[in-house]
Amino acid sequence: MRLHRIRRSMVAAVSVTGMAAALLAGCGSDGGSEGGVTKLTFAASTLGDPGRGPLLTKWLEEFNKSQNKVQVSPAAVPYPTFGQTILTQMGSGKGPDLIRFDMPEFESASDAGLIAPLNDLIDVSKYDLLKQPDQFMVHDGQRHGIIFEASNYAMFYNADLIKKAPTTYDEFVETAKSLTKGDTYGLAFRQTEAEEAGVWQDIFNYVYGFGGAWSDGKQLTINSPENLKGLQAYKDLYDAKVIPRGTDAATFRRMFAEGKVGMELNNGGYVTATRGQNADLNFNVAPIPFPVRKQGTILAPIVINEASPAKEEAATFIKWALEPANQVKLQEILGASSVATVTQRSPEKLKETPFLTVFDDLTESSLPQIVLGFEAKTPDIRKVVVKNVIAALQGTVDLKTALDNAQQEASQLVG
Fold first, then answer.
1. What are the residues whose beta carbons fall under 8 Å from the beta carbon of 374, sequence distance 6 or more?
2. Same domain, yes or no, for 33 and 113?
3. Residue 46's domain spans which residues?
4. 144, 149, 151: which is closest to 303 by C-alpha?
5. H helices of 183-285, where?
6. Which of 227, 237, 330, 342 is the most buried (most CB within 10 A)?
């Protein structure tokens, strides 16, 4: 149910950095036609991923080779600025024809009327869609997205440094401490306001993994005892100096690939990215060893821009992507992620990557990183929560006060 309505003008008013503004110029598509061929643009932050980006671009090229009336060009926008950049452009009636969104921005764009309904464009009854995650693609009977990627979070660990994966939080902490020496760290996670969206993804696992939640579906519960317990665990690890403080995700992921970080909580898409950085790295995956088996998932829909003058042609691409062979190929590109439809992992892939089943088994206990009941307001709530949590990490306020402040600020935002 929609509890909050965001006006299109509000989305358009989001401030844009100079870099984002420059990117905007390269993202738009007028749905133009040359020689009877409609040219579309598909924007996704993953197109800039060093491991998966080139493979996704080749996948798009396969679509283009199969068509004579529609062509799709890729547009990579960096993840930290992706949502702000695309929402701003869509809010002014422009933007890419096709967009791979993360859930918070998907909810905002949907609520603002910036996404084209797909009910009349795609007959989903033809496809065996994943039921649990697919429910989040529909709002009030209107389908606004098709899952492009569903990527559950798990614990990645260096199998040369860690012979037996920790199965409890206490073991997790002890393992992180024992591995931290010199220029090697036991763990890594995001902890700077500059990576707001990424910090939100990281702390989501601590909140839900300790029995917390951002809301009860009707009221925000940011400062609940369970949330405090989970975020205290996150802060305790920060205070223990078992992570490379101040480093961004790109840096500590490179460190993991180089054997300088022992553990990282990440989603299934990280498998391909890690192998892309170091094909010889001996790593493994296990469920996150927190008290409650509940974790985040990168649920990324592909949508059609309401402003696109070529919605039918854009739907042609989505229908091509949903064909069984193309779904399997997309899943192999994405790594340990799931796609929109039910697929079977090949024996060859399971032999190559036995832990794929770890990710698949987490689907029913994974949640998209949105605030339930306040989906469209998630980006605003996220900003408030991350700002206050980072303040607590930096010691300017105690964690309980930080969460009380976040509860008050966010409650005022949602009305």
1. 3, 4, 214, 215, 220, 381, 414
2. yes
3. 8-150+297-368
4. 144
5. 196-209, 225-239, 249-257, 270-277
6. 227
Residue 265: phi and psi, rounded to 5, are -90, 120
In a domain, 186, yes or no: yes
> Structure pTM?
0.80
Please give the Cα distance from 239 to 235 (Å, whole number).
Answer: 6
- Contact residues for 213 (Cβ-Cβ < 8 A; gap 6+): 207, 221, 224, 226, 227, 372
Q: Is residue 2 part of a domain?
A: no
Mean pLDDT to the nearest integer, 353-357 = 94
pLDDT tens for each residue of 185-237: 999 999 999 999 999 999 999 999 999 999 999 999 999 999 999 999 999 99
Contact 84, 355 (CB under 8 A): no
48 with 120, same domain: the answer is yes
> What φ, ψ does residue 124 adopt, rounded to 5°?
-70, -15
Residue 62 — very low, low, confident or very high, per pLDDT cuts 50/70/90?
very high
Predicted confidence at residue 273, as pLDDT, reads 85
Q: What is the pLDDT of residue 32?
A: 63
Whether residue 146 lies inside any domain: the answer is yes
Q: Is the pLDDT of residue 31 over 70?
A: no
Q: What are phi and psi of 301, to 5 degrees?
A: -80, 155
